[in-house]
Write a sequence for this structure.
């Protein structure tokens, strides 16, 4: 999944945050987007990449892609569903 054709409307870097603040920060930013817009979230491996995508999906949003950045971080592309 290294090839990225997804164009994000907004980007968020939460590599300096720890759980549960990673999800809280992502949730705040995605709530500011319009339905159908895409948020790219850069996060650390481990708890964030396991929990944040799952929590956003549980909130009804669509996980489009998860890219391994090969530096201990991942970028998750999330489409906002609903307003």
């Amino acid at each position: 999944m290294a090839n990225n054709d997804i164009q994000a409307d907004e980007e968020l870097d939460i590599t300096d945050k720890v759980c549960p603040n990673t999800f809280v920060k992502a949730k705040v930013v995605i709530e500011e987007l319009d339905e159908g817009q895409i948020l790219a979230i850069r996060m650390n491996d481990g708890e964030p990449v396991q929990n944040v995508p799952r929590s956003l999906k549980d909130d009804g949003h669509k996980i489009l892609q998860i890219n391994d950045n090969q530096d201990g971080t991942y970028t998750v592309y999330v489409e906002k569903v609903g307003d």
